[in-house]
Amino acid sequence: MTEKELIEQAFRARDFSYAPYSGFRVGAALETSNGIVYGGCNIENAGYTPTNCAERTAFFKAVSEGCHDFCRIAIVGGKEEGDVVADYAAPCGVCRQVMMEFCNPKEFQIIMAKSIEEYQVFTLEELLPIGFGPGNLQ
Ligand code: THU
To answer: Which atom of ligand 1 is least distant from the CA of 91?
Structure first.
């Protein structure tokens, strides 16, 4: 799968965003090491704190089906409708920590996109340096 195809899948996941409170619609497409893609969207709640980010939705879908090996995630988010957003949507700190649980920080790639043409790629280590993970508890 190309980076552009994964970004397209993130936009498709974003179509399902449930964000009546913030209006900030996020989609993620998480690719496993064997090429399966799990989509996720943000799911807000009237109680606010139960809100789940798009990235964690994708991770929890995958882990709940037995997948623990991931290579990259594409993320798109913003208040606009459609397949272009105004800015890059960076994963929040909680989502970075969930990534740290399951991904090699030197290898796992985070693709932040505004469109299929305009995107940036980071490793998890770049976004979460000196992270705390499963290795610290061994
Ligand atoms: N959001 C995500 O889905 N992912 C992030 O990493 C940052 C924030 C969502 C949560 C909430 O529904 C909305 O964006 C505004 O914070």
So the answer is: 6
